[in-house]
Amino acid sequence: AELIDVPANQLIGSAFKNLGLMVTINQRLDFDQIELLLDEFGFEAVREEEYGADMEEAVEADLEADLQTRPPVVTVMGHVDHGKTSLLDYIRKTNVIAGESGGITQHIGAYHVELPGGRSIAFLDTPGHAAFTAMRARGAEVTDVVILVVAADDSVMPQTIEAISHARNAGVPIVVAVNKVDLPDANPMKVKQDLLQHGIVLEDFGGDVMSADVSAKRGLGMDELLEKVLLQSDILELRANPDREAVGTVIEAQLDVGKGPVATVLVTNGTLRVGDHVVCGMYSGRIRAMLDERNRPVAKAGPATPVQILGLPGVPGAGDQLIAMPADRAAEIAQTRQRLEREKRMRIKSRGVKLTDLSKM
Ligand code: GTP
Ligand code: MG
């Protein structure tokens, strides 16, 4: 609203009237929505090119022969109270296959679980569509598979439908977790039929969307769910090159009193090592230490591995990209990004002054 000099409530009105979007003033829109909305006001949305982001391509495309299978990255979505947090908690705290407890206790934005047969899955522990949409709006599309949680006693609800459309827009396949099957009034069949109305055709109905009946509370069906996620990821043939400089995405970051800036980064390609120089958002630095989700130090992290990194001089934003590169290049890019950011802020500020002046006339 600020940038195009249109009152916020007018934008909200137009979103509803012309696009059928019910939005609030502090809601994030994704890029596609912004594009449509701005079009109504005669503006063109242009995705901001991040200075130095082309480094990834500059680092030589991977050769077919260097690509190896990598684990899937999974996000959990679903309607309020349908059990997203319970599902993630169960997986986080339990060695799912052995059914033992005693896993990760702290909250970090991403963790990975090892499964029998040497396979693993990376979970983004940022439930809710807002995080997914915010990351996408920043051009960071890290999710390979969405687990759609639908409570069997409540079936398909508005945010279930919203999650389906988010996953669809992002081109990410869904695996359905029909949750709370332990409840007496659970009706998994109704869930499956209702999903049909929204174009989700489960295998039971001859479609290709996999599902598992689960109880996140009791731990029922959870290994089957994870197996289906692995099957779905096999179809995607997810691959990466572990033998190259690391590229990653910041999942969350904060200032830790003892450790300084700490960022949870999902390595998306290459291998990140302690001692690497990186540019990450507006900052450059040397990786001083890396910790896994159990706070244990690790020396390196390969594709689809989440790690907490220490050593950045500031706190990057969620969705920021991390690239390992020589120290001088990293420093140069970080400096330029900081300058561009300062200039952008100045522009917005001076526009604000102009607006105030006009309103006084
Ligand atoms: P929001 O974050 O508020 O959108 O909810 P959520 O989707 O994360 O749901 P959450 O995991 O907080 O679960 C909501 C309620 O359902 C809690 O009271 C859970 O204990 C309960 N619940 C979750 N999974 C199950 C289940 O498998 N069976 C039963 N009986 N209850 C469950
Ligand atoms: Mg929750």
From TrEMBL:
Record: residues binding GTP: 78-85, 125-129, 179-182
Coiled coil, from the record: none
Residues covered by the Tr-type G domain: 69-237
Location within or outside the cell: Cytoplasm
Family, per entry: Belongs to the TRAFAC class translation factor GTPase superfamily. Classic translation factor GTPase family. IF-2 subfamily.
Role summary: One of the essential components for the initiation of protein synthesis. Protects formylmethionyl-tRNA from spontaneous hydrolysis and promotes its binding to the 30S ribosomal subunits. Also involved in the hydrolysis of GTP during the formation of the 70S ribosomal complex.
Protein name: Translation initiation factor IF-2
Species per Swiss-Prot/TrEMBL record: Longimicrobium terrae
Gene label: infB
Residues of the whole record sequence present: 504 to 864 of 1100
